[in-house]
Design goal:
Shape: globular
Distance between the termini: 90 Å
Helix content: 40-55%
Strand content: 5-15%
Strand order of the largest sheet: 4-3-11-9-10
Number of helices: 14
Structural class: alpha/beta
Largest sheet: 5 strands, parallel
Number of strands: 11
Length: 391
Amino acid sequence: MKTPEHTITLAQPDDPVARTNPLAGASLLIFLFVGLLSSGWLIGSGQIEPLPPKLSATQILDGAITHQIAKELSKAAFPTTFAKLERGASWLLLNDTGPRVRSGCTDWLFLADELKVNHQAQRNADAKLQAVIDLKEQLSQRHISLLVVIVPDKSRIASAQRCSLHRPASFEERIQSWTAKLNVARLANLDLTGALAPLGPQAYLRTDTHWSESGAKAAAEAIAQHLKTLGITATPRRSFNESHAPLAIRPGDLVHLAGIDWLPLEWQPTPEWIAQTSIREIPDVSADSPDNEGDLFGDTDLPNTALIGTSFSRNSNFAGFLQQALGAPVGNFAKDGGAFSGAANSYLNNPAFKETPPKLIIWEIPERDLQSAYAEEDQSLLNDSLYEAEE
């Protein structure tokens, strides 16, 4: 029998490695076993929300289902504690802010979604565009005006604060491309880039996704001016008082998303101090006058303007500044975490819309949502909601 000319000799571990291998293996097994028990208890106790009965291809391809499973399993005590410690250590040792947040210049944080190229971006943008156009046409049949307002990304306006963060060049024209098609459809729209760009980084909060009060106020005034050029007047006419609270720390939602808000303040990005503004309507003494006795249901005193959108409309007193700029109260039906159509779906199913429809709807949409995934069930829900309202 011939001896092979070439033989492979496996390297043998040295003594320290050989001694520690069993310990490493045992530690891994213990870690996996504890995690299994923790997750099993979570499932058995019914604390995990079941997956949707119908899963779309978009949800699977974009990782939405995987993200939901990970989110539900992370509620277990052991992975929650471990993840919390890992996030804190990664930030303190490596300046790492995790998968959902990106670090720009010193203490400036940005939402990762603003810098992500979405799967089938153009298809998503076109589907959302058509949904808005369809909604406008159906609202027009009920003599309701629609104004679409686009909030530019923080990473666009505060571009100087990104430092080494890369923002894809393809994003530069995405607002203009989308609003140009709205113009072709003769749908009133306003890109707030022109109102916020002069403020630069002062238009946004440093450690938060949202605009600052300066940015919110500039946006509100731009909307009021645009409506004036369209010949649309918000009613009933009112006056408002403005007051300011003492300076206080404003927690940043990006610090929370980075998982480091549990650390001592001195170990977190430098917090922001804000003197929060409050806008209050001055009571109209004429509302109880004999002239209004014929208004049995009080409809003439209801706002004719409704605001739908995202958390931008619920932060930095934007709704208050909008009322002040319009000189009229506004029904705020915006929704935190509503993304593109969440607030629209909720509002169109709301008795407030069905029983006392407005004359004007202002739909605030963040730039980052223009090209994000748009599931088919969300599209049909938006159309079905308005159809039910018409009935």
